[in-house]
């Protein structure tokens, strides 16, 4: 045991001064077990080939099997031996690579998030992977700072050190009232899973993967596809389409529930006072623990996709500066759950209720008209095309029904979109809501706004609308206030970030219709 | 605030255009760019129909394509020249670009991260350059295209100095 600790001080204890290891150290030796298993997984397909080749040649070439095992093991050992890290001089450094030497180095005060994940193999061995997020713009996988193979207990200590390295902070972290649980997983949430689109995504993946396997094994030809298709073709489309949709919905629902369970089982959201951070933990097989520095958490996005709204559910994600879009998963704050609960969490995270509850300023008749034209143009084209086809080409007469269906769907979208559209400037937050199928209410701290974009097409200028975009250094990189009347949008930008837009303003100029535009008081001051 | 809202109504605030125009030679640059694009599209049309034989070339195809691309090459640069404007103040950068979709971008000096100076292949022919200002947001880059080369260098220097004097980590 003492030898091991000499190799890796993080191994299996809680040293009192963790961020003080100037020596290069290897990860946990148990990774010697993990790496070969993982390499075997990576080489699974060629391995099977090798083994099959070995047995097919009558067992004489036994050394094929040895190579098949030896290569992954050797690669695993090499990976373990060549990877080392140290935390010294206020920097985290990770050195790795067998052929290409690679040293990653980042200052500790740049660390924005620390993720602790544990795959099933890791969990059996009591290990975790610590991923250090620095908000780099680099998209290359090799630039990620992963410490793969840290004992579970030490990982927590390492995380708390990376996020706040002062002794006082560590002292406070041991106080009894330090942690405040905010939400805990409730099996009842599973009812929301079928209302998300994840089931369809999983179904598509299963279908794709399944067909590939069938193809690979040569079973594809044995499936009775032709006879099934023939039988199906004799049925009426009006029967076939709903039945197929129902079947798909059923399969997707089951898959969605399973997917939800695998991702979100054991979900907890905890706030710790000492380091002012939010900790999110979830996962059935692979557990994942994300910590977000609360001072970097600049806003939330309350997502209410159409499906979830039907079940009066919602989901919440965090806008963290320094987390890019590819790390959206770690931006999740609450998975699909009851709307009231989600809103409650949003209020706690933002520290003020107004951005979540305050009524929004609507964008007026021109914006509403635009919702209708935009939602109905495509259905109108579909109607024309479908009707033309039905009367001229040799297609089933039911094609005609596509037109009304598309128009009804478009109309519904337009109604919902125009009702949703709105913005507000309350409680120090810029709030914007838009969308129907994917409705989002985004609230962003105004100091996190790092620029404005006013974009308007000729159509928008003609009716005096503009799309105001507040850019930010996190989440989706921007918050959009769609189709807001130009003077209202300008006033919003002026009031949200004082001292920036004023210098480019002129007052009371002529509007697009040649008359002086005036802002009604209720629009000019949304928080009044 | 209250003073401005006397009587419950306030005059509508409106963004004015940025003060500076880009170099008049930018029109020529955009025109050459448009002509190159027209030539490439025409070549693609002829190659796909005559060499690869994907479809029969009708007489109206090159005529239509030529008319549209040439018109675009001559009209859009004029339009764009009227729209493209920029301004640098002590606290902010303000640009206006586009022709059909007009985009006005404002970035505070304190949030500027990098200032890029680029001389494109065509821009070089006309002694022009573009200056791109980025912030920590992937959605917030400001580009001033078609500046006179010396002017562009001066803008880069000015921006670098101003951005440097303001503290903060720009996020």
Automatic annotation (TrEMBL), chain A:
> Transmembrane ranges?
40-56, 62-81, 240-263, 375-393
Q: Does the keyword Kinase apply?
A: no
Starting at the broadest rank, the lineage of the source organism is:
Bacteria, Bacillati, Actinomycetota, Actinomycetes, Propionibacteriales
Q: What name is this protein filed under?
A: PH domain-containing protein
Which source organism does the UniProt entry give?
Nocardioides islandensis
Alphabetized, the UniProt keywords read: Membrane, Transmembrane, Transmembrane helix
Task: Answer whether the UniProt record assigns the keyword Membrane to this protein.
Answer: yes
Q: Enumerate the spans annotated as YdbS-like PH domain.
A: 80-158
């Amino acid at each position: 045991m003492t030898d091991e600790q000499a190799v890796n001080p993080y191994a299996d204890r809680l040293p009192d001064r963790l961020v003080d290891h100037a020596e290069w150290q290897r990860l946990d030796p148990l990774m010697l077990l993990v790496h070969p298993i993982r390499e075997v997984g990576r080489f699974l397909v060629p391995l099977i080939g090798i083994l099959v080749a070995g047995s097919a040649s009558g067992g004489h070439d036994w050394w094929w099997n040895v190579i098949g095992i030896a290569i992954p093991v050797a690669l695993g050992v090499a990976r373990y031996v060549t990877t080392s890290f140290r935390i010294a001089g206020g920097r985290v450094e990770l050195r790795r690579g067998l052929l290409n030497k690679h040293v990653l180095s980042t200052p500790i005060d740049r660390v924005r998030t620390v993720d602790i994940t544990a795959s099933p193999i890791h969990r059996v061995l009591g290990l975790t992977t610590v991923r250090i997020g620095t908000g780099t713009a680099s998209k290359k996988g090799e630039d990620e700072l992963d410490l793969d193979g840290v004992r579970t207990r030490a990982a927590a200590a390492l995380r708390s050190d990376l996020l706040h390295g002062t002794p006082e902070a560590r002292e406070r972290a041991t106080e009894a009232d330090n942690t405040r649980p905010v939400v805990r997983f409730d099996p009842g949430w599973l009812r929301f899973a079928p209302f998300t689109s994840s089931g369809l995504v999983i179904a598509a993946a299963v279908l794709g993967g399944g067909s590939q396997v069938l193809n690979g094994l040569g079973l594809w030809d044995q499936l009775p596809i032709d006879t099934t298709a023939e039988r199906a073709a004799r049925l009426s489309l009006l029967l076939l389409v709903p039945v197929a949709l129902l079947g798909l919905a059923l399969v997707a629902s089951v898959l969605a529930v399973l997917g939800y369970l695998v991702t979100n089982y054991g979900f907890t959201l905890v706030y710790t006072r000492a380091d002012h951070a939010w900790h999110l933990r979830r996962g059935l097989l692979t557990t994942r623990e994300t910590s977000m520095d609360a001072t970097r958490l600049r806003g939330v996005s309350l997502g209410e996709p159409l499906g979830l709204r039907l079940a009066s559910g919602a989901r919440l994600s965090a806008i963290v500066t320094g987390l890019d879009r590819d790390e959206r998963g770690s931006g999740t704050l609450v998975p699909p759950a009851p709307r009231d609960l989600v809103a409650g969490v949003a209020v706690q995270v933002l520290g003020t209720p107004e951005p979540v509850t305050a009524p929004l300023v609507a964008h007026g008749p021109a914006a509403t008209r635009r919702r209708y034209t935009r939602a109905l143009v495509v259905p109108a084209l579909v109607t024309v095309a479908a009707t033309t086809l039905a009367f001229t080409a040799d297609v089933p007469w039911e094609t005609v029904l596509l037109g009304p269906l598309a128009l009804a769907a478009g109309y519904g979208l337009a109604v919902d979109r125009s009702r949703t559209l709105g913005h507000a400037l309350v409680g120090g937050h810029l709030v914007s809501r838009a969308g129907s199928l994917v409705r989002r209410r985004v609230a962003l701290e105004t100091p996190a706004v790092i620029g404005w974009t006013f974009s308007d097409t000729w159509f928008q200028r003609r009716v005096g609308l503009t799309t105001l975009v507040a850019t930010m250094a996190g989440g989706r990189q921007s918050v959009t206030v769609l189709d807001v009347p130009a003077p209202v949008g300008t006033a919003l930008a002026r009031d949200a970030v004082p001292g920036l837009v004023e210098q480019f303003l002129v007052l009371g100029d002529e509007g697009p219709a040649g008359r002086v535009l005036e802002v009604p008081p209720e629009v000019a001051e949304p928080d009044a | 605030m209250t003073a401005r809202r006397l009587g419950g109504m306030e005059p509508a605030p409106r963004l004015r255009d940025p003060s500076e125009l880009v170099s008049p030679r930018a029109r020529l640059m955009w025109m050459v760019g448009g002509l190159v694009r027209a030539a490439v599209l025409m070549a693609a049309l002829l190659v796909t129909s005559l060499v690869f034989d994907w479809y029969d070339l009708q007489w109206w195809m090159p005529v239509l394509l030529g008319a549209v691309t040439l018109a675009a090459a001559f009209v859009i640069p004029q339009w764009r020249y009227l729209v493209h404007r920029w301004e640098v103040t002590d606290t902010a950068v303000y640009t206006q670009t586009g022709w059909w979709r007009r985009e006005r971008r404002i970035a505070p000096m304190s949030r500027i991260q990098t200032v890029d100076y680029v001389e494109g292949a065509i821009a070089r022919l006309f002694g022009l350059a573009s200056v791109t200002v980025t912030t920590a947001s992937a959605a917030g880059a400001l580009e001033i295209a078609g500046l006179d080369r010396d002017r562009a260098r001066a803008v880069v220097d000015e921006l670098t100095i101003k951005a440097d004097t303001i503290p903060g980590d720009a996020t």
